[in-house]
Amino acid sequence: MNLWNDPIGLIAGWLNGLLATWGLPAWLASLVVQLIGVVVLVSVMMVVDILLVWVERKVVARFQDRLGPNRLGPFGLIQPFADIIKLLIKENITPIGADLVVYNLAPIMSLMAVLLLWAIVPLAPTIFGVDLNVGALYIIAAGAIGTLSIIMAGWASNNKYALIGAFRQVAVLVSFEVPMIATLLIPTILASSMGMNAIIQGQRVWYVLLAPMAAIIFIVAAIAELGRAPFDLNEAESEIVAGFHIEYTGMKFGLFYAGELLHAFTFGGFWAILFFGGYRFFGLEQLGPLVAAAILMAKALFGYWVIMWVRYTVMRVRIDHMLAFNWKFLTPLAFALLMLTAIVHTLLRGSPEFVYVAGMLLMNAVVAAIVAEILRGFGRRLRARADQPGRAAAPGN
Amino acid sequence: MEIGQLVFAATGLVVLGSAVVVVTTRNLVHAALWLVVTLFGVAALYAILDAGFLAIVQVVIYIGAIAILFIFAVMLTRKELRDQGAQLNRGWWLGALVAVLTFAGLALMVRGWSGFSTLPKAIPAGFDAVGALGNALVAPDAFVLPFEVASVLLLAALIGAVYIAFTRK
Q1: How far apart are CA A362 and CA B26, in angstroms?
Q2: Are residues A206 and A309 in the same domain?
Q3: Does residue A373 fall inside a structural domain?
Q4: Confidence of residue A395 (pLDDT cuts 50, 70, 90)
Q5: Average pLDDT, chain A
Q6: Quick check: is A94 in a domain?
Q7: Are residues A145 and A262 in the same domain?
Q8: Of A294, A318, A342, which marks where a domain is finished?
């Protein structure tokens, strides 16, 4: 049953042996095998991406009380493939004055930044690209490449709407990175490691029970990083038409779109890895790596569904509200949680698990109560100001 | 030639080549983007040296923050993104002289160094580099003082930035 217990290791070993019999030196053989692994992982993720288009359209249809794609194939399953053919045969338009190299590089980098993230996702205890010991920071580093691709697209398109969209998106990305880093550090403290595999191994109790507030902040910051509603100021159809990808046609637009969907799914996966036990599910993952990978995918789909749920329920936030929300609310809260988690973790480290979990939960509950009280006071002040005769409300200050 | 040396040479060429383009290109946004390539090459050099943490931090800070700040500054302050006029001024030979002398001095200094011919020691399996770095930064007999001084400096810069940007109502 070795194929069942370690499929990737077995196939890699077999390929290595095969290449060695062909007379390749050991380092070249392992390089070829690793390259094949990368190609397989990327291909699998791209196929998942195609299906995500269908998932997204079906789910949004349900939220909006309609049916969604239902003509091509069972449940409209062939629709995304038809869409891809359409995108591929569309005319490729390059705007006058566009910076050709930068313009064409941007969509590729946008998708690349997302695919890079999958290098550190442990699908199962034995199936992962690399078990980087700085995995949590790697998420931010890959995000930096995504930011760069958006600025490149916005600038190279030679279009003012594209540039405005890029500026907005970068302002959002750069500021929401701060609470995201702070919340990434909380699982790091709990697991005493930044590696994704170690974080999953450490979750005998899912971290969502130890740090529920951090889990919520992480998903909010992730939605902002993705540039999806309610934080979709980068495309804001009603204001700047489509933002940074306004000038892209055909498959170049398709790459941005595919990147966005896969990014949402990926952050759903990281939410699952960091706070919902990754591939762990009450011992079910010990059945085999393929079961573990299926568990992780299911959890990632759940995270993706939460992101869609928020997207199609909440309306777009104004940019000053959004930045004030980040800098005056999320960032201080995330740092306070980080410090309190570190203190409680140090105090309760030796105690039994039950006390440890209860202490962490209690700390989070107290913080949540304080936050609710502060928000209520803030709302009261706003209302009082609005009720004053002759003065309009000035929200966001 | 070993494979490691080949990778190092290729990365070094990318770093140097893109750095030359940064100062010779006339398009300022292109210069900033080539700078990103240079910084990425430096991150790759860190990765080759088994300093994964530094490589990632290099990407997060230099590409994610500083390069993007550069691009912003260029876009917000210049109407014309193309640099006109001569790229060299009259003192170019002075700069070249200083550069050559610095290079010669450094080359003289490291000429007798034995590090060129020795292979790096293999890192023992299971060595936690990030943990060791973190401990070194807060250990009293290591780098806690420089670390704290740098923190205070950054805090002062932060407060200064807030003070300058703050508008009194």
Answers
A1: 59
A2: yes
A3: no
A4: low
A5: 83
A6: yes
A7: yes
A8: A318
Mean pLDDT along residues A84-102: 84
- Complex ipTM above 0.85? no
Residues A77, A157, single domain; the answer is no
Whether residue B53 and residue A137 make contact (CB cut-off 8 A), yes or no, is yes
Interface check A152 vs B, CB under 8 A = yes
Residues A185 and A298 occupy one common structural domain: yes
Does A148 lie at the interface with B, CB-CB under 8 angstroms? yes
Q: How many CA atoms are closer than 13 Å to the CA of B88, on its beta-carbon side?
A: 7
Number of domains in chain A: 2
Task: Give the closest of A137, A148, A170 to B60, CB-based.
Answer: A137
**HSE of A268 in the Cβ direction (CA atoms, 13 Å)?**
23
* Beta carbons of A140 and B52 less than 8 Å apart: no
Beta bridge partners of B27: B82
**Alpha carbon distance A259, B137 (integer Å):** 38
Judge whether A172 is closer than 8 Å to chain B, CB to CB. no
User: What is the span of the domain harbouring residue A80?
Assistant: 1-86
Tell me which residue in A133, A140, A167 faces B130 most closely, judged by beta carbons: A133
DSSP A204-231: SS-HHHH-HHHHHHHHHHHHHHHT-TTS
Q: What pLDDT is stored for residue B13 in this prediction?
A: 93
Chain A closest CA to B111's CA: distance in Å? Answer: 32
Q: Using CA atoms, how far apart are residues A141 and A147, in angstroms rounded to an integer?
A: 10
What's the whole-number mean pLDDT along residues B56-75? 83
Q: B82 forms bridges with which residues in the sheet?
A: B27
How far apart (Å, rounded) are the C-alpha atoms in residues A360 and A256? 40
- Kindly report, residue by residue over A189-215, the tens digit of the pLDDT: 888 888 888 888 888 888 888 888 889
Least confident of A46-55, A133-142, A235-244: A235-244
* pLDDT value, residue A397: 47
Q: Which of A86, A120, A148 is the last residue of a domain?
A: A86
Residues of A in contact with B129 (CB under 8 A): 133
A250 shares a domain with A303: yes
pLDDT at B154: 93
Residue A379 lies in a domain: no
Domain residue ranges of chain B, discontinuous segments joined by +: 1-83, 129-169
The whole model's pTM is what? 0.83
Count other Cβ atoms within 10 Å, centred on residue B27.
15
Q: Examine the domain organization and report whether A124 and A21 are in the same domain.
A: no
Q: Residue A158 is which amino acid?
A: N
- Pair A218, A275 in one domain: yes
> Is residue A250 included in any domain, yes or no?
yes
Together in a domain, A81 and A113: no
Identify the pLDDT of residue A364: 87
**Is A176 in CB contact (< 8 Å) with chain B?**
no
pLDDT, mean of residues A54-62: 88
What is the residue whose two structure tokens read 């302050």? B77
Closest chain A residue to B30, measured at CA:
A102
Region B1-83: CATH code: 1.20.120.1200
Tell me if B130 sits within 8 A of A133, measured CB to CB.
yes
* B157 pLDDT above the threshold of 90: yes
Residues of B in contact with A147 (CB under 8 A): 64, 68
Among chain B, residues having any CB pair with chain A shorter than 8 Å are 3, 29-30, 33, 36, 52-53, 56-57, 59-60, 63-65, 67-68, 71-72, 75, 128-130
- A370 vs A250, higher pLDDT: A370
